[in-house]
Inverse folding.
């Protein structure tokens, strides 16, 4: 889906672009803050969709939409604005949708889903099929869409075929010595037989990727292999890029932060037992935990207590050995006068630390609880 973005506010333009990069079927072919330049490019490129701000200097969005519809009626226009006073006029122009600022991930996603290019094709454009998406949260899967869990039926010929693919995927873009792969997967084989196994494995990986129309390449160079993703999306790359670009948490973008948290479907390849996976798994888990704590802290600081409690409980259910969730929940339960829940959290923390590590809660938590108990007695 070819898309052009038009907004005289650069910050809004960047924010919208960041949201749209989450959809692998979207191809942003132009971004404009100047509506006159945008008009020229839209009429020339004939995109499938235009996200169009209404209040702009030179040519406002309503007039620009009229020009677009006059010359190319099949182009879908999605209006964006900070005010809802233009809604009637916008829909009189047969606008596909109308989105209020600040942009919301779910709202943009819903707007895109309303557009069916296949049902109303633009004869002036050539739609390219979406490439598959590699999923590694929780388990390895290849899907037809990043935004929805539509896993394709992939059968890996052997355990090592899948394992070598995962290793190359984890080290994507880097040359890996063939000898290193032999040591990891065929260390008990004689060198000659090991190489035969390796070559057969690479052959089967390539065939598997070809069967799902992937553009992933395994490049051979001297005594090494490199996996190139090309335009194929990888869920952990997309998720980590989102994290890097997230703005500071505010009331306007808290839903976006929640959405990014929910994209973390489970630990990285959590069902695989290869030792070389563990460091990457822990690194990604640490990023998710850090972001979860930031969002929960914001919710607690803005008196959204039930939402904060829910998020800390979610963290606790997946990461029971992290004591901060127990501590924060004790404080929140204390603030709302839930005595039993405070005691329950401290008891759970004591039990898990003692059974797993033979330790007691750290001094700051212990001291807080003792002070709290004293106040209850008094």
């Amino acid at each position: 889906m070819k898309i052009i973005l038009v907004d005289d506010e650069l910050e809004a333009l960047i924010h919208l672009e960041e949201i749209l990069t989450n959809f692998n079927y979207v191809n942003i072919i132009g971004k404009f803050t100047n509506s006159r330049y945008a008009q020229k490019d839209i009429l020339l490129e004939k995109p499938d969709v235009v996200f169009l701000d209404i209040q702009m200097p030179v040519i406002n969005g309503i007039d620009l939409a009229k020009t677009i519809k006059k010359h190319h009626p099949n182009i879908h226009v999605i209006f964006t604005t900070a005010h809802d006073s233009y809604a009637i006029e916008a829909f009189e122009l047969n606008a596909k949708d109308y989105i209020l600022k600040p942009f919301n991930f779910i709202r943009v996603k819903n707007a895109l889903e309303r557009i069916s290019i296949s049902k109303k094709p633009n004869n002036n454009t050539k739609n390219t099929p979406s490439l598959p998406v590699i999923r590694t949260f929780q388990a390895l899967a290849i899907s037809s869409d990043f935004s929805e869990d539509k896993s394709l039926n992939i059968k890996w010929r052997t355990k090592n075929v899948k394992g070598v693919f995962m290793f190359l995927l984890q080290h994507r873009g880097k040359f890996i010595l063939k000898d290193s792969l032999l040591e990891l997967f065929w260390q008990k084989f004689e060198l000659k037989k090991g190489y035969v196994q390796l070559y057969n494995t690479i052959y089967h990986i390539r065939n598997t990727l070809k069967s799902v129309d992937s553009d992933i390449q395994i490049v051979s160079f001297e005594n090494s292999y490199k996996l190139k993703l090309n335009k194929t999306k990888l869920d952990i790359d997309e998720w980590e890029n989102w994290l890097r670009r997230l703005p500071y948490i505010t009331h306007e973008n808290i839903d976006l932060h929640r959405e990014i948290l929910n994209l973390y479907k489970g630990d990285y390849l959590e069902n695989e037992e290869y030792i070389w996976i563990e460091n990457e798994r822990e690194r990604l888990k640490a990023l998710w935990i850090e972001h979860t704590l930031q969002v929960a802290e914001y919710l607690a600081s803005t008196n959204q207590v039930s939402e904060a409690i829910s998020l800390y409980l979610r963290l606790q259910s997946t990461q029971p050995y992290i004591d901060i969730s127990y501590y924060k929940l004790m404080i929140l339960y204390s603030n709302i006068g839930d005595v039993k829940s405070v005691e329950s959290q401290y008891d759970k923390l004591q039990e898990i630390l003692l059974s797993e590590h033979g330790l007691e809660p750290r001094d700051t938590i212990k001291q807080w609880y003792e002070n709290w108990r004293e106040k209850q007695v008094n």
The chain has three domains: 2-113, 133-233, 237-377. The CA atoms of residues 27 and 117 lie 14 Å apart.
